[in-house]
Design goal:
Distance between the termini of chain B: 29 Å
Structural class of chain B: mainly alpha
Number of strands of chain A: 0
Order of helices and strands of chain A: HHHHHHHHHHHHHHHHHHHH
CATH topology of the largest domain in chain B: Annexin V, domain 1
Largest sheet of chain B: 2 strands, antiparallel
CATH topology of the largest domain in chain A: Annexin V, domain 1
CATH architecture of the largest domain in chain A: Orthogonal Bundle
Strand content of chain A: under 5%
Oligomer: heterodimer
CATH class of the largest domain in chain A: Mainly Alpha
Helix content of chain A: over 70%
Order of helices and strands of chain B: HHEEHHHHHHHHHHHHHHH
Helix content of chain B: 55-70%
Chain lengths: 302, 302
Amino acid sequence: MFVFWVWSETGWGTNEKLIISILAHRNAAQRSLIRSVYAATYNEDLLKALDKELSSDFERAVMLWTLDPPERDAYLAKESTKMFTKNNWVLVEIACTRPALELIKVKQAYQARYKKSIEEDVAQHTSGDLRKLLLPLVSTFRYEGDDVNMMLARSEAKILHEKVSEKSYSDDDFIRILTTRSKAQLGATLNHYNNEYGNAINKNLKEESDDNDYMKLLRAVITCLTYPEKHFEKVLRLSINKMGTDEWGLTRVVTTRTEVDMERIKEEYQRRNSIPLDRAIAKDTSGDYEDMLVALLGHGDA
Amino acid sequence: MGMGVDENALISTLGKSQKEHRKLFRKASKSFFVEDEERAFEKCHDHFVRHLKLEFSRFNTAVVMWAMHPWERDARLVKKALKKGEEAYNLIVEVSCTRSAEDLLGARKAYHSLFDQSMEEDIASHVHGPQRKLLVGLVSAYRYEGNKVKDDSAKSDAKILAEAVASSGEEAVEKDEVVRILTTRSKLHLQHLYKHFNEIKGSDLLGGVSKSSLLNEALICLLKPALYFSKILDASLNKDADKTTKKWLTRVFVTRADHSDEMNEIKEEYNNLYGETLAQRIQEKIKGNYRDFLLTLLSKSD
């Protein structure tokens, strides 16, 4: 591999540009191949080698990008359950926006790396309403067909509406519907909710005056299940504008969505902020970190 | 009366018999046939017809079940149990607690394929009451199956479990911590927990700690499956066993026969508990093709 030779010949230290140019435009299969050839040639995991040379945001972006998607999600999930880096959004994103079979691979990667299951960690590190919501969310293996039962959509929209009216936001049935129904079924249910009761459910939920962590998470769950690019746009916007506490949101969204739905997210971002995402990122970041992110955003065009 | 039908004997006696012989047979078999003197014929008792149908179908059912993929088999078992209602929920516990993580996941995949919905959504929407959390949690589990375990973590879980089953108020089966421990922890972790529990309480965790039979069953299935299967096999082979209980024999044999190690453990446990081998008991109590089929399944693990 010519690229490799160039890389190894020119050494590491000052070659962030080379790292970006090699990795940013490769797809998951290619990155995986690069990693295994590197390991076979130099007897060391590429990520370990990178770890010694790079720093902060750039390092994180490269590392996350280089990891296999299931490993990446496992790493992010583990990080999000640790006390000081606690970030339940990440769990919601992983549980709600990855396809069901992909989520299984994440669980396998998690078990292989951390010698326990993601469920037991999530369960152990949460309690009360948060656990009630997050544990089934992370455990479920959703049906992914397009079949929709309209009668069920109507009856479950009614249940959701009742619970919202009663302010029973952690009611068993309320959570059951959100955490077990297929995305297609849920979509139909929430459409019916909107049509029948005049407002989208998240609008009603936002009216709750006690807008605590649980409520924010609940709304995120609904958005991620029905309109994920909207959620990711929000994370990007808050991170770029340095609002909120999700400081690594920018890195996370770009590295995890580039091969999935980045085009839709870009459109959503432009629609909402009247400025293209790469321009916003360029304004807010600099140096190698900026170059890496911009290269990833242009990944599809390479 | 044992189980199954001695088809060969039937062929040679009834099959070859003349009309008059059969009439004599009917007149002589007062428990199966009743004289309708007015209309001059020997009527079959309803229960005899049902009984015969059932006995003839044992071999049939066993073969059909055996031919199916294990995942489909388990998915259908769960569906049937769900339809039957509360009295059959022990089947759901059995399937979810005694299968490996991959086999349970497989059953969930098969469920998607067969019933166009996920196992957990079906159970969640049909089970009400305190058992819902436990059942949904058990079928949603994808447990770590490696050999790493944190003994102090198991010890602290044991304390939590001990407190939960002792305290009054909310039933143990509903308590969040009980559900968390039973539905997310690895089986190895639970083995360590079992040891600590017995030391802490001075009593056996498997001695029926809870009023909830489902909770007790989950514990024995997770910790001592060979014991569990031996007991239900014995119940099914008992002369007083009812129609439903007798069916357990087919289910256990067909679902466990592929797993030689487990089957051998069951055979050993059965022998220890009841003083005779499973093979001997089958020989005594079962007839015909059904018997031969069961013995063949049994010998797979020899």
